[in-house]
What we know:
The structure is a single chain. The protein is an all-alpha fold. 79% of the residues lie in helices and 0% in strands. The chain has helices at 2-32, 40-68, 76-105, 109-124, 129-140, 144-170, 181-184. The model has no long low-confidence stretch (mean pLDDT 88).
Amino acid sequence: MENRTNLLLANALRFGLALAAVNFIIFLLYYILEVDIMSISFGIISLILTIGIYFGALIYSNNHLKKTVFGGYLTYSQGLFNSFTVSAVSSIVNAVLMFLFYTFIDTEYLYEQMDKVIVKMQESGMIPAEQLEKTIAELEKVTPLSSAAQSIWGGLLIGLIVALIISAITKTKSNPFADQPEDTNTTI
């Protein structure tokens, strides 16, 4: 049982690091290509790309775990634990990378993006003046560290929601013909 838990954690760490690396590389491509991240078309394309990569990585991770560790079977709780752990590792590593980027590589980038958000909100005219002032005041308090912390919490919340869905998709019934009793009771 302990060996399977270690394999499960190793799998989650491996796929979490890979997912964080892919996300950070995509961010760097956007940065290098100077993509206007405030455009609606970019937002839609980026959202579809991000969701596709995220779901694909978690499904692949659960299926890999199912084949390599659990002999073709994966319970809902095993899949949930794996998917959430992959998401958590990815969120934490990505937040650290973004913090380092905002702190040491381009110290103005975060603030430039916030200025663009403020301009878009002002131009839209859809937000009441009082609410706009409060929102601008909150945005002006953002630092690289607070942005990283917020990214982690948001990533954990989204990771949990996605993990619940992915686990339902990738689960299989336990093997009724397992030779050892621990094969049918490997929930985490």
